[in-house]
Amino acid sequence: MTDTVEEHQARVLAAVRPADPVDVPLLDALGLALAEDVHAGIDLPGFDNSAMDGYAVRRADVADASEASPVVLPVVGQIGAGQADVRTLEAGAAVKIMTGAPVPEGADAVVPYEWTDRGAETVTIRQAPKPSQHVRPRGDDVTTGQLLLEAGAVVGPRQVGLLAQIGLATVRARPRPRVVVLSTGSELREPGAELGHDSIYDGNSFMLAAAVQRAGAVPVRVGIVGDEPGAFLTTLRAHLADADLVVTSGGVSQGDYDVVKEALRAEGVWFGPVAMQPGKPQGFGLVDGVPVVTLPGNPVSSYISFEVFVLPAIRTLMGLAPAARPMVTARLTHGLTSPDGRRQFMRGDVGFDAQGRFVTPVGGPASHLVGALAHSNALIVVPEEVTALGQGDRVQVLQLDSVF
């Protein structure tokens, strides 16, 4: 029996749950989901401070200042950011103040340099400020106890800045899962090694490890495992203790050397066809309690299967929503055909013109065309019941490099 894409995706996601929260150093939290609400423990700003370089004054002392009738005040000191030696301003005086420095008690406005002669011992003020002009009041941005970020919010650069500003060195977040990546096949060789007449370089484990890292998880690339079930199981079990998820490529079809299927069927792992092209042979199960997703070995099938089944699992482990990459609509620039009864994921190149988003098919449907895959930035998703689409038709696409 052939499963639908949704059925196999549900099988995988039913076995994973968000990882338990941990305290994460602030910069390491970039891209992670918060596990609890964050409330402000302080006000921002934490004190009234100057929005300009100028002079802090009592407004009543300079209310009548003008070009025709300037006001002259003695300068009783200087306040720089982090150098607030003057705490109180008496009537009839001014204090030089820098942007961000605390406004002294008694002052209720700041006169910018441009309105003065920039005097050091006395200052001539030629324009009267409005009440509280150029003063940033305490708590103007954030107040103590205010809800700043809700649980589930993803920490980005702007959120890191806010969290640092309120004094947090760590945050409670869902950690990055460790994802073990294995490639199977006696024909595989490490890049840089010499190839024989019947060998190929292992691109899958590098591609999948890079995809794991791009998803925000920690890849553990084990490398190549030959076509021997015992060696495969030994290698797998050696990495299970520290793994949150395992991804294999190859050895899941109907061949004589499908080592992954042979080794893992005895462990209760499900294998079967999914109604999609490419990526029909799939497998999934728990081995020693660790989710193991087995992907086909052809590189395009492997990558597309990662996008459809593994990426949502990683995002679920990380507590990120939505789990699956959202689809958007685009205009098809060229017609294409698709097999009946299978959901086709065709490589495409998305762009924009005066009519909006468009997508151009890249390469053919074959699952070995990694060159076309590398030159695409999207997958055109053709439903199972659709066998042909024409130029100008609207299609659903997954934009592979978009942040979500």
Automatic annotation (TrEMBL):
Membrane-crossing residue ranges in chain numbering: none
Taxonomic superkingdom: Bacteria
Pathway field: Cofactor biosynthesis; molybdopterin biosynthesis
InterPro entries associated with the record: MoaB/Mog-like_dom_sf, MoaB/Mog_dom, MoeA-like, MoeA_C_domain_IV, MoeA_C_domain_IV_sf, MoeA_linker/N, MoeA_linker/N_sf
Pfam family name, one: MoCF_biosynth
Keyword Transferase: yes
One GO process term, biological-process aspect: Mo-molybdopterin cofactor biosynthetic process
SUPFAM superfamilies per the UniProt record, alphabetical: MoeA C-terminal domain-like, MoeA N-terminal region -like, Molybdenum cofactor biosynthesis proteins
Top-level EC class as recorded in UniProt: transferase
Similarity field: Belongs to the MoeA family.
Protein name: Molybdopterin molybdenumtransferase
Organism: Nocardioides flavescens
